[in-house]
Specification:
- The chain is an alpha+beta fold and 128 residues long.
- The protein has one helix and five strands.
- The strands form two sheets. Strands 1-2-3 form a three-stranded antiparallel sheet, with no helix packed on it. A two-stranded antiparallel ribbon has the order 4-5.
- The longest helix has 16 residues.
Length: 128
């Protein structure tokens, strides 16, 4: 979205960077979250970040430093509290319950947007 303008009749005119112009009554602006990793100096301990500042992790939440794991929003997966809790629990089971193969599969995370109409997703997407 390049520009949003409110017209006198209350409608919104939206212009995108590809030149598409649309008129709508309501706009939902959902831009996501940004991890606050910039000032942690993770590069000093060998932790690699992606272009958005997320810690790059494998399926077991291991970072590029074998002594550092990352779960939750800073890992850049599904940015949902229940997902972070589930990933953290599996990490705890791996570290303290000798369950080396326990990990959270992200392929079947259910999500919902409490809007009207409701929006829900589960399963693989074209991007995965």
């Amino acid at each position: 979205v390049e520009r949003v303008e409110k017209r006198p009749d209350g409608l919104l005119t939206i212009k995108t960077n590809t030149g598409v112009i649309d008129e709508v009554e309501t706009l939902i602006w959902a831009i996501g979250r940004t991890p606050h990793t910039a000032n942690l100096k993770l590069d000093k301990v060998g932790v690699k970040l992606d272009d958005h500042g997320n810690v790059i992790v494998d399926q077991y939440q291991n970072s590029s430093n074998p002594s550092i794991q990352c779960v939750g929003d800073a890992a850049g997966k599904y940015l949902l509290t229940p997902v972070a809790i589930a990933a953290g629990r599996r990490l705890a089971h791996r570290l303290f319950n000798n369950e080396a193969s326990n990990y959270l599969p992200y392929e079947n995370i259910a999500t919902v947007v409490f809007s009207h109409p409701l929006i829900g997703t589960v399963g693989l997407t074209e991007g995965l």
